Amino acid sequence: MRNLFEDFAYRYLNYDNQFLRTFLHLFTKPEEVIGSYINGTRKKYVNVISYFAIAITLSGFQIYFQNKFYPELVDMSSFARSGDEKAMEGYMNFMQEFQSIVFMLIVPFYALLSKLTFYNIKKYNFTEHLVLNMYTAAHFSILSSIIIVSCLAIGVQFSTASVVMLVLQVFYTAYVFKRILSLSLKRILWKTILFILLLSCVFFAIIIMGFLSMLLVKGLT
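The chain above was modelled as a monomer; its predicted structure follows.
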């Protein structure tokens, strides 16, 4: 066990380790981590695919941990309207079972929205926006897994921790774009609002299409 721990510490916890360096620098200088990958420097930091895979793996451990040890803190049925508890439970089960697929599908969607949001800044193309959003989403997912597990361990409800992390994700994403695109505070605030508006419009359109589809199915039956 001692040898295993020493090997783990050497590979993942020492400062010269790629993962630890990537994790720390995505807080302090995200423009260097992301810019290095985009510009072809691939040895200093964990590449975006590997970092994304680590995030998905830790997210899977988080789901196992919360369902195994704190199911009462993860129960979201109280947030559903009366009679919709089963629907809420089904939604949560679906999101947990297919969380890795959902995570992979939502990043290109975020990349498209960020490209539209920063339409007047031609610094990065769509593929580079994809890299930027993959690093950002993966990093915050890793951080979120650590914080949510810690919150559950001290008795904080999953819903409360999730809402706080959602707000922090908005601030962190804005911080990354501000650094990498060298934007002023006023400009990044405006761009953040624009991104949220675009995201809200898309979700609203999805809800309407889902409602219309449901009506169509009922009409056919």
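The chain has a mean pLDDT of 84.
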